[in-house]
Specification:
mainly alpha; 180 residues
């Protein structure tokens, strides 16, 4: 696979992380630099690590991953999205997507399960896995960090509506995982 092909694959894999990063950014004030770096590092690391795991464990996990990965991603994204939608209707302060380690871990796994399956497919073709992991991780880092910044700009004016929209987007991403 060419470097250009890897780049476009990385962009495709990063789109769900980008959407979630926007949701995180919606809750932030102007001080987003550190949060953007945190989100980018989590998502970039997991998007890069999952293909590597899939590549080296293709024979063991191929059936298990393909059988349950869609449902796991759906459940995680649906639960987090539903929580956001629900909290957008609360009169008090709405719940937020945070950058706490536990929430970032859940979000990172949910958005990178498809990358695990890509890693399994890499084992079947002639791909430089280390170059692929590097490209996927760096692209996801950059796109996710940008998503946090974009979300914070939009969220300053429309926080409640943005929380509702962000929750709906997560649910839609989860449902689309099941339908594809």
């Amino acid at each position: 696979m060419s470097i250009i092909g890897l780049f476009f694959l990385a962009v495709g894999l990063a789109m769900d992380a980008f959407a979630v990063a926007i949701g995180i950014g919606l809750n932030l004030n102007k001080k987003t630099r550190n949060k953007a770096l945190t989100v980018g590092l989590y998502f970039g690391f997991f998007q890069g690590a999952m293909p590597l795991i899939g590549y080296f464990t293709a024979n063991i996990f191929a059936e298990s991953v393909s059988q349950y990965s869609d449902w796991i991603a759906f459940a995680l994204l649906f639960i987090i999205g539903a929580k956001m939608v629900w909290s957008s209707f609360e009169k008090d302060k709405p719940a937020e997507l945070s950058t706490s380690p536990s929430q970032m871990l859940l979000l990172s796994v949910a958005t990178s399960i498809d990358a695990l399956a890509v890693g399994v497919s890499f084992a079947l073709v002639n791909v430089n896995i280390f170059l692929a992991v590097l490209v996927i991780g760096v692209v996801t880092f950059a796109i996710s960090a940008a998503g946090v910044r974009i979300g914070s700009i939009f969220g300053e004016k429309y926080k409640t509506q943005a929380m509702l929209a962000g929750g709906v987007v997560l649910i839609v991403i989860g449902v689309s995982v099941l339908l594809n």
